[in-house]
């Protein structure tokens, strides 16, 4: 819904995290890196993390079940269900530790041309302010999101370490 050129949306500022970055690659390549598991498993996660995929079906209603392995040896089970896919433009999903996780959050990723690159924005909306604050304070979600996008940039430009 639009009013006077501004998009109306529910007030969620105290429950959301937004990170973004311009990726030095075309929107088509960046979108492919997000949607094909052979790519996604190679760059997803903050610095020092690796990812093991258990299941992956990129389709509305499909699931990506995976484990992120922290640099300290801690494993983090993750579960994503895709809720909207607009090729080259937008991906929406629910992200938690398991199916029906009451603490799962909604996430929207957008892709837009930006010069020769692609602006990627990752917006996460948590069920409560407390869960958002925990993600920021305990799990360093903002830094982790920015590191994840840096990993993506390194991967698609062939500058992986």
CATH class: Alpha Beta
Tally of helical segments: 4
Strand element count: 9
The mean pLDDT is 92
Low-confidence segments = 1-5
Strand order of the largest sheet: 3-9-8-7-6-5-4
Cα-atom Rg, whole angstroms? Answer: 15 Å
Class per helix and strand makeup: alpha+beta
CATH architecture tag? 2-Layer Sandwich
**Biggest sheet architecture:** 7 strands, antiparallel
Distance between the terminal alpha carbons, to the nearest Å? 44 Å
Question: CATH homologous superfamily?
Answer: START domain
Percent of sequence in beta strands: 35-45%
So what's the overall shape? globular
Number of domain modules: 1
| CATH topology (level 3) name | Alpha-D-Glucose-1,6-Bisphosphate, Chain A, domain 4
Query: In which range does the helix fraction lie?
Result: 25-40%
Q: How would you spell out the order of helices and strands?
A: EEEHHEEEEEEHH
InterPro entries: ASHA1/2-like_C, START-like_dom_sf
Family: Belongs to the AHA1 family.
Pfam families: AHSA1 (PF08327)
Task: Tell me the layout of helices and strands.
Elements: E1 2-3, E2 6-7, E3 16-23, H1 27-35, H2 37-43, E4 50-56, E5 63-69, E6 75-86, E7 90-96, E8 105-114, E9 117-125, H3 129-137, H4 141-156
Antiparallel strand pairs: 1-2, 3-9, 4-5, 5-6, 6-7, 7-8, 8-9
Helix pairs in contact: 1-2
């Amino acid at each position: 819904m639009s009013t006077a050129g501004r998009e109306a949306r529910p007030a969620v500022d105290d429950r959301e995290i937004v990170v973004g970055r311009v990726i030095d690659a075309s929107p088509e390549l960046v979108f492919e890196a997000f949607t094909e598991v052979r790519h996604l498993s190679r760059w997803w996660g903050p610095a020092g993390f690796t990812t093991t995929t258990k299941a992956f079906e990129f389709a509305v209603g499909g699931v990506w079940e995976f484990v992120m392995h922290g640099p300290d040896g801690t494993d983090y089970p993750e579960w994503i269900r895709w809720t909207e896919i607009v090729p080259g433009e937008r991906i929406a999903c629910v992200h938690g530790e398991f199916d029906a996780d009451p603490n799962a959050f909604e996430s929207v990723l957008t892709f837009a041309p930006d010069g020769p690159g692609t602006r990627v924005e990752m917006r996460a909306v948590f069920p409560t302010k407390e869960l958002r604050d925990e993600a920021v304070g305990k799990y360093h979600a903002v830094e982790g999101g920015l590191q994840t996008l840096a990993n993506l940039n390194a991967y698609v430009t062939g500058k992986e370490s």
